[in-house]
Design goal:
It catalyses: D-ribose 5-phosphate + ATP = 5-phospho-alpha-D-ribose 1-diphosphate + AMP + H(+). The chain is of the alpha/beta class. The protein has helices at residues 13-22, 63-79, 115-125, 142-152, 194-205, 224-230, 245-250, 260-271; strands at residues 4-8, 30-34, 40-44, 52-56, 84-88, 132-136, 155-165, 168-175, 182-190, 210-218, 235-239, 254-257. The protein contains 8 helices and 12 strands. The protein starts with a strand and ends in a 14-residue tail after the last helix.
Length: 285
Amino acid sequence: MPNIKIFSGSSHPDLGQKIADRLGLELGKVVTKKFSNQETCVEIGESVRGEDVYIVQSGCGEINDNLMELLIMINACKIASASRVTAVIPCFPYARQDKKDKGFFDIPVDNLYAEPAVLKWIKENINEWKNCTIVSPDAGGAKRVTSIADRLNVDFALIHKERKKANEVDRMVLVGDVKDRVAILVDDMADTCGTICHAADKLVSAGATKVYAILTHGIFSGPAITRINNACFEAVVVTNTIPQEDKMKHCSKIQVIDISMILAEAIRRTHNGESVSYLFSHVPL
């Protein structure tokens, strides 16, 4: 594709490389370093004049540093006369505080969804998927699980949880039936994993034959890996919006769905002025 450059920040270079490979492009040359006072310095190593530039940077790891690095890269490309600069943010930072829908942007934003990739994984990897129940670990995810359940033509359930304080659940009540069925927990992210591990126990005690968890963003901080290893999951499936290689070394239950093809196709469609809404319901080949 002419007049397009892909750059990757330092948060997830492997995903940036996968996206560039799918588009048949070389990753742009960029050097990131820190001054002695820990300020981030970014040098774009090639001309971007008149180019359509895409910068891949995920909100993970040292989130504040990576966010600052992204902003500096955007500024560097604009100063260097790029015709357009688009940030590709697989895991959006600070989204947990629900600011993303409160007027952060006065520019176009396309929100991509993992649902098509999740549906594909379920059909290809869970033999008994036609006898499963899709479960939300909280009431807030009800819309997400009903959408997936409808498209699979299976039942759904949700777990009502009462919190004493953030990241600490007091009591869980299952609403729905999982007896003698495979239960598939679906959530947008898992951090310390207390909720999903507690939910898995609840599902097994309610008669589920197997329990899977499918999570868009696997943050896995603090005791998360220990909790997953001790829990009754067949598998905990996450997308590669966040690097998972180190976590997978310590937990054999973690499996990864590659979403680079979705991001690559979104870039191609944006570059060519095509609609990206096709990606809301399809996984590109």
